[in-house]
Amino acid sequence: MYPLNNKLFTITANMEGWELFSNSLLPMITGAIQATIPLTLISFILGLVVALLTAMMRLSKSSLFRVPAAIYVSAVRGTPLLVQLFIIFYGLPSIGVTIDPFPSAVIAFTLNVGAYASEIIRASILSIPKGQWEAAFTIGMSKGTALRRIILPQAARVSVPPLSNSFISLVKDTSLASLILVAELFRKAQEIAARTYDFLLLYVEAAIIYWVICFILSLVQAALERRLDRFVAK
Questions:
Q1: 11 or 138: which carries more pLDDT confidence?
Q2: 180-191: per-residue pLDDT in tens?
Q3: What distance in Å separates the CA atoms of residue 229 and residue 231, rounded to the nearest whole number?
Q4: DSSP for the chain?
Q5: What InterPro entries does this protein map onto (predicted)?
Q6: pTM, whole model, 2 decimals?
Q7: C-beta separation of 106 from 37 below 8 A
Q8: What CATH number is attached to the domain comprising 157?
């Protein structure tokens, strides 16, 4: 009698687990579409703008530009992203600056991406042979024109793999935004788990969704790299 009861209990538990899994799938995907993906895209695009400006400042011969950029990069890379989020969302209100959760997350992720990506862009620019600069100057290009038309296009191809990795990492880092009440994918998992107390199943489900998104992005990255390889001299 007892083995039969145990078997029925296991079957019932499995059915309930599958029902919870399927019912929670849509809210999590909705959180990914409405918050995780937009947060990633907005932060990365703005971060690239910050990164390019920072890289140019760090490559400047003037310490007026180079030193502030170096301090910014060092400060961001030397502190945890979670701390940066908390400073912006929980810390700034103490001095009268209150920012909503989503903009707070965008600011934090943008500054974080900007610092790390600036080093990638700076290294990519420095990797271009000096002969490219000399050839540009020989045909009468200014430094700005040479940078825009000759150096940056080549540096962009070099920087695609590491920047793509940064983008994929940013997708996962957006889960930290749940701690400042942004209703992204992981926040949805936390809310459902708080009601059902089935933390393992829901957190594994969230991990699977993150994995699927990152796997798709890795395929896009591989295709982009293959396309860019066609323009590189062998």
A1: 138
A2: 989 899 999 999
A3: 5
A4: -HHHHHHHHHHHHHHHHHHHHHHHHHHHHHHIIIIIHHHHHHHHHHHHHHHHHHHHHHH-S-HHHHHHHHHHHHHHHTS-HHHHHHIIIIIGGGGT----HHHHHHHHHHHHHHHHHHHHHHHHHHHS-HHHHHHHHHTT--HHHHIIIIIHHHHHHHHHHHHHHHHHHHHHHGGGGGGGT--SHHHHHHHHHHHH--HHHHHHHHHHHHHHHHHHHHHHHHHHHHHHHTTS--
A5: AA_ABC_transptr_permease_3TM, ArtM/GltK/GlnP/TcyL/YhdX-like, MetI-like, MetI-like_sf
A6: 0.87
A7: no
A8: 1.10.3720.10
Residue 147: its pLDDT value, please?
Answer: 82
Domain that holds residue 109: 13-229
How far apart CA 150 and CA 170 sit, in angstroms, is 29
Residue 25 within a domain: yes
Q: Which two tokens stand for residue 13?
A: 């538990």
- Picking from 26, 23, 31, the residue whose alpha carbon sits closest to that of residue 198 is 23
Look at residue 42 in the predicted model and tell me its pLDDT.
97
Into how many domains does the chain fold?
1
pLDDT tens column, 22-44: 888 899 999 999 999 999 999 99
* Residue 4: inside a domain: no
The model's pLDDT over 118-171, given as tens digits with 9 standing for 90+, comes to: 999 999 988 888 888 888 888 878 777 888 888 888 888 889 889 999 999 999
Task: Give yes or no for residue 14 having a pLDDT over 80.
Answer: no
